Amino acid sequence: MIGNKIKKWFFINFKVRRYLRYLDRSLQTIIQIDETFFEDTKEIYDQIKRSPRYRKLSLFYSTRQTQVQNHNNIVREIMNEIAAFDFDDILINPIVHEKDEFQKYDRIVKLIDSFAIKSQKFTDFVQNVVNIQKDFISIVEQFALLHDINGCFAEYPNQYLDGRKISCLKERLKRIGERLASYDRKYYSFDKLDEIDDFVEKHNDIYIANHIGDSVFTTADGKEFDVNQRRAILSDDVSSLVIAGAGCGKTFAIVGKIRYLIERQGIEQTDIVAMSFSKNSTEDLETKIKEEYPNVSVSTFHALGLRILEQAKHRKFMIEEQYQAIIESFFRDELRRRPESMRKVLYYYGLYLNSSLDRKKYQDEGALYADLKNADFTTLKDNLVNMTSDHDARKTIKKELVKSYEEMALANFYFVNGVQYIYEAPFVVDLTTSHKRQYTPDFYLPKANIYHEHYGVNRDGKATQFTNEENAKYIEGMAWKRDIHKRYGTSCIETYSYEFSEGVVFEELEQRLRANGVKLTPISAEYVSNALNSIYDGQEFKSFIALVSTFLNLYKANYRDITYFDSAKQNQFGNQHEKMRAGLFLDICKEVYEYYYSLIKANGKIDFDDMISESIAHLDKLDGFRYKYIIVDEFQDISQSRMKFLRKLIAHGNSKLFAVGDDWQSIYRFAGCDVDIILRFPFYFDMAKTHYVTTTFRNSQDLQNIAEPFIIKNPKQLRKHLRSFNSLEQPVQIMYFDDDKFSAFLAILKEIEKYDKTADILVLGRNNRDANGILGKGLRLTNDKKIVSTAHPAMRMEYKTVHGSKGLQRQFVILINLDDFWYGFPNKLEDDDLLSLVLSERDQFAYAEERRLFYVALTRTTSYVFLLANRERPSAFLEEIKTACLALNPSKEIIHNDQIFCPRCKSGLMVVREGPNKRQFYGCSNYPYCTYTISDLQAVRDNRRCPNCGGFLVYRKGPYGSFFGCSNYDPKTKRGCQFTLDYARKRT
After folding, report:
1. Do the Cβ atoms of 876 and 710 come closer than 8 Å?
2. What is this structure's pTM?
3. Which pLDDT tens digit goes with each residue over 792-815?
């Protein structure tokens, strides 16, 4: 019995001691301690507390029980207070709380701090209480700032946030952000300060979604605006640019914008001005606006500028409207009174008219010939002969067709300096072999008995236009020519391509000529005048005048005096030749500019560009001309001067700008327009945003699939994808012609007749003179540019230049100048790099303006467009798209699938041609540069090749029977390749 008690006591003693050790840690921790232990051991405790042996344990036991009870009471108090403390609730509206009320938590904080061990929850509570007591004023202020932020965002209900509102909003939020930066701790989320752009976008999207179905977007006749048009109209940015593709309803969008402003935004009609650049487009705009809103002002830029100027100066002005006629008169009349100027113009025309000095890599001479076919290197001498002939001299006189731009410039140098020359005259000694034609040096000067060879080499003596193998052949050919002259004692001077790029070729040539006793006698002023008279009406000279006119229009839009003409000569140029070319051109343009202004000032008139710049200077003097909205149609046609005028008008009235245009259709550079302004719209206009309207109601999707890849090859053009709900198979069709353009045009009319005998047709040319090529018996052009056909009297045909067709559409379109000449399409003379001197930003893409012009031509049709092209020299633009087009009359030249190459130039292909006697023969496709021909058709068709020299094996008869002999053997001279093959053995 006693033993059992001892065991029990021992057990209790062990249990109690273990529990007491547990209590030592628990009493330092904010947790509820289980008090049931004391209940369970109460009986034992009552027994041991009377025992002296366990008195100390009993006392300790009793003390700890009290400690546990006190501990649990404190923990419960802490837990209750924490449960009642809602930190988030306090932050929801700290204004309803008083700072003093948080002092009651001081006791709890101290109780928590009295514990050595506590969880993160209690630490956070203490920290929150301390922070609240310390930062209470800051919390209240931050709460107020958060309220201000929310108020900022809620301030624009059912409004579109434009740049001004956004700027104001950002400024207010910026100040709030600066206040927040002064606080050590932030008690609220201020993400909206960093997400304002996302918020604005969502806000505006909601606004548009809420109004996109408004009844204002349905016209009285039931016509509806498409989704893109509605979004552009609803977007109320400070500066809005709407890019609307061809046939996408640009003017319709403008009418919709005006309607929305007046009927939904409450804008007064007199607070709106609509502007365009030409009289025709403005009249069209006025017709569509005035009937519904008669008090909306509609004007051209110039008319508005004139009104401003007349009000500011209280006088009427005479406007010079004959700019082009004055430029023409300088070259037609005034130039004849300026001998030195005449000489400059003739020198420029003869030596620098064409700008290309590019060096391409060619595999062989034949590849070079293929490129030369698409060039137009004819000399001044040839031009003058042809222009003064009573008949078409090109058909009766051998055309002096030179083989490079450099040779043409050299020939013209001889011409203007009175040195008689013969181009490619046969060498004095007959060097003909079956393998090689007679040697024909580049130039022969008969009076001095001197030859002149021009070598296309650089300073290192390499012909870099060829690959390594061909370069070696070219250098070998140079050595052979030099040896020939040395062997036969003939004099030959030399010039080189590098002398062109260094700009010294004419100076060096003159020195070499003088050293050989050749006297230069520059042609007289009278002869220069006669020469200019001869070439004046030629298309090349017309294009040169057009280039000068375009340059001066761009100049006048950017500069107000003549000072830039001289400073422009200091610009960076690719080489010295380009610098000299630009210098001469600038001198000519400066003279024309001074002549133009002296004439209009003498007549008391003012120029359009001067009128715009003058109105800018005087606008601030007037209280009027303040508009809330400025609407601009055909924005792609804006110039630098009109851009500055527009910016001034916007600032004057604190106006909003709504501009509609299409950079793909910017084609009026000749009138001073600068496509860079629409391409970089945000650079020129503040708080700008661009919208796209891309559904075309004019063209088929099939046509857009051809036109779009073509126009966006220029990486500077804005990217957009036009879509159409119309489909049409083969919308672009090509008709080639050889010599008879008139008959080819009639063939197109027959094709159109298959679709519609009463077709409405727009005939387009690159220039006015192109129409002459399609006129003939039964087809005439009336004074009002209508084309009348006796064979197709029901057809309605009108002729326009592509420029003149802008904004028009017809059922059918015929483009009649898809030829590759300097003045063809693209016009290489009018789209000259010299224009970059007066453009805001140079477009490095070749013929960028001409590419846009071709795009405009393609997109005038509501159905089919027909392209009339020279078979021998088709436009490079046509070559780009021809695989996607239908060729109505494929080439008559038979080019075999196995590509039978010319044995002489190696790269030309053997093609079937017809001679004057209608007999067929094979000739090289690189004619006239490679003149190889062969009459044995079967030899070419079978591609029977000589294993020795690569010539053809032709059928021949000899004293011992029939055999095959090499075509490079000449039976008369018995020279050449003597390879033969037995006829019977070949047949087997």
Report:
1. no
2. 0.75
3. 999 999 999 999 898 899 999 999
